């Protein structure tokens, strides 16, 4: 049996960062990084990378990734009701094509001592003091960072994500951006929150797409593209670059049992339910997994506690806001307040792209614009305020 201290399944941002952090804490550990595909590889994504991601990579000593992307200072949000907030983000975010971003993190992990191997994992069995993968490989700990359709999550008994906790999005590359200085977001009318985006990419053009925050509300590929065309006319993606994928939202039931198997990133259903942002959550949860994987049989329990400490309050706040966002009038109130008040805009960006929580001042400014029916319905549903 080919046995390692740590086997990481999936070499996206969550997996590469888990490998990197484990090696930073225990240089010389044998870390095997498995992926079903060769790198560099495309990943279906909007390529928007929050400023906070680079802070985490700086702390890990991974340099040069910022420079692969385009700095985009502005953010523009528009509701179907016509409210527009167009401001400089508290800190500039970046657009980094995932083909480059992910390959750079994998290179850093290999440079730190991880062994990268192409292998699609199909089966895990618990052998007591180690986890066996596909009958041939074993790890004293395993990090499942194998994305939205995680085999590792299923092996742990994680339930299939509910439609309401799964977003669906399609993306492609267009020859021009809606605005070369701005991350442009156009919200759609309809029963489920949804938006179209145009994010300028390095070298010109844009990553454009459309996402719906409910699997059953997404419709066909043709319908997704029709809604993108209606919201962002002129942003026409090259058909050869179009790909759609699921996003497991952090409103999903938590899955992290005790034991030697840990989950990170999309496999842990860490995607922000307000924005579909998942790279920050993948990197942050990958960092925790890399540290906790070194705890042997206590790894799973340590990861569960770390995830709650790091994300619990944030996820409760964005979950409550995601429930409010389905009510007519909420988005207009929130974006209207963000247009009028810098403090609301900055709070919204931190909630949507990082680990922010709702500030009482921002909440009061949004609530002042809410139709009273929305407030009453939310109080009834929650039985009180969010903690
Ligand atoms: C259309 C779309 C747009 C998005 N836009 C943004 C955005 O602009 N900004 C943002 O922050 N987030 C965005 N997201 C979310 C973001 O892409 C994910 O949250 C992020 O990629 C999660 O990283 P990860 O490392 O957990 O998983 P992934 O990046 O999915 O990596 C998982 C890896 O596991 C490998 N793998 C899968 N199964 C196996 C297996 N059985 N064995 C071995 N390897 C396996 C895959 O090949 C892959 O390399 C978007 C998502 C979609 C679908």
Automatic annotation (TrEMBL):
Matches recorded under Gene3D superfamilies: FAD/NAD(P)-binding domain
Domain named FAD-binding: residues? 5-279
Q: What single Pfam family name could you report for this chain, choosing any that match?
A: FAD_binding_3
List the PANTHER family: CONDITIONED MEDIUM FACTOR RECEPTOR 1, GERANYLGERANYL DIPHOSPHATE REDUCTASE
Give the protein's recorded name.
Geranylgeranyl reductase family protein
